[in-house]
Amino acid sequence: MRQPSERRRLLVFSTVYPNAAQPHHGVFVRERMRGLPPEVEVTVVAPAPWFPFVSGLRPGFRPRVPREETQDGVRVLHPRFFSVPAVFKCLDGFFLFLGALPTVWRLRRTFRFDAIDAHFIYPEGLAAALLGRVFRVPVLITLRGLLPLLVPYALRRPQLRWTLARAARVIAVSESLRDDAVALGIPRERVRVIGNGIDPELFRPMDRPEARRRLGLSDLSEKLSGGSGVSRDAPLLVSVGTLSPRKGFHLVIEALPALARRFPGIRYAVVGGAGAEGAQEEELRSLAERLGVADRVIFAGPQEREALAVWYSAADLSVLASAHEGCPNVVLESLACGTPVVATPVGDVPRTLDALDVGRVVERELSALTVGIVEALEQPWDRGRIRARIEERSWKAVGLEVMEEVEGALTAVDPHPLTSGLEVVP
Asked: Are residues 90 and 165 in the same domain?
């Protein structure tokens, strides 16, 4: 890697990035960027989808994002791109390229970035690959959890293959995503697995009764057992994420009646709010009412990262019943707080929960989930051992690995595979 005096300039490109209207949107993209070495200069282009009248028809679906922000000294630009809700999604990559191009063209005059760091293969990866052709810079594409959902679409598969073939470097946040890329025809050696990280100073174990008092859960903190750190009769489960069906909050609620027969005071905290994939809170509330467990479910809403650390520490167990993930930060953050995890075998979860002393991997099926939660709640846990499983995986460590890929792309003999006649340098 070059000496710190030789500064690299990196353009981070993603439609999923926190902004003033959506402060919890794609926090993992921002955290990875913050983990880059301090000598790397970064500007973010985070385009926002636009379609006439959609905000009036569905309030909160696509909030108005400011055109430009400065976040912790980093310039963040939000150009608009045309995106028809629910239909014509096979055109999103091309429309994203067209929408971002004028902004990136102007930016290039004052910020001559060395490479583009794109998050998600579609639509960002396709648009970034086209931008890389225009500005003759290498493009790095990070594969995240939605890739398996895109492959079945016949009109998008050729776009995915084209994008991967033209990336100078491909990063996958899990082994399963690397397998998905290989299935699309990319040689395995061209894909490096670099998972997500944690902030070890923020996500760390804290006293569980104190965490519960801070959250107003004093009735639970009074019932903690003295030795094991696990509540005898009133355990607290927590699930964190956007309230979409994919995340599986409904499965945990469906398990509560059976769990309550074994743990009479059990409570379940749902921490999260509406997202691009949906807003399921009303359906979840109705489900809890029908099952007679509404008084056991806490809808905490979206929380700042500092508050998330308190929720993880307050819980006896984190639960992720998701259908699709890449490298879920909720699992890493929970482990960093010393809280065991029960999760479905999605993305990087099996590799992270690779020992019975940190959690359980269960099938995404009600009986299996229920049994896994019961077993986990009945087991004594060593919070220090759980924390040790993940504490070295900081965002700074991730940032160094990413920069190895950036340097590899910049020093390659041909950083622009499959050259195209689209190259123009402003």
From this structure: yes
Position 9: which residue type? Answer: R
CA 273 to chain centre: 14
Determine contact, residues 97/130, Cβ cutoff 8 Å.
Answer: yes
- Burial classification of residue 227, based on how many CB atoms lie within 10 Å of its CB (0-12 exposed, 13-18 middle, 19 or more buried): exposed
Do 233 and 173 lie in a common domain? no
Say if 423 falls within a structural domain.
Answer: no
DSSP code per residue over 265-309: T-EEEEE---BTTB--HHHHHHHHHHTT-GGGEEE-----HHHHH
pTM of the complete model beyond 0.70:
yes
Q: Going by C-beta distance under 8 Å and a sequence separation of 6 or more, which residues neighbour residue 174?
A: 145, 193, 195, 325, 326, 327, 347, 348, 351
Q: What is the CATH number of the domain that holds 330?
A: 3.40.50.2000
The answer to whether the peptide bond before residue 123 is cis (omega within 30 degrees of 0) is yes
- Residue listed under structure tokens 């990866």: 125
- What range does the domain containing 278 cover? 208-388
Query: Domain count of the chain?
Result: 2
Whether residues 222 and 311 share a domain: the answer is yes
* Per-residue pLDDT at 227: 39
- What pLDDT shows up at residue 3? 45
**207-242 per-position pLDDT tens digit:** 999 999 999 987 664 554 443 444 556 899 999 998
How does pLDDT run across 296-348, given as a tens digit for each residue?
999 999 999 999 999 999 999 999 999 999 999 999 999 999 999 999 999 99
Please check whether residue 425 lies inside any domain of the structure.
no
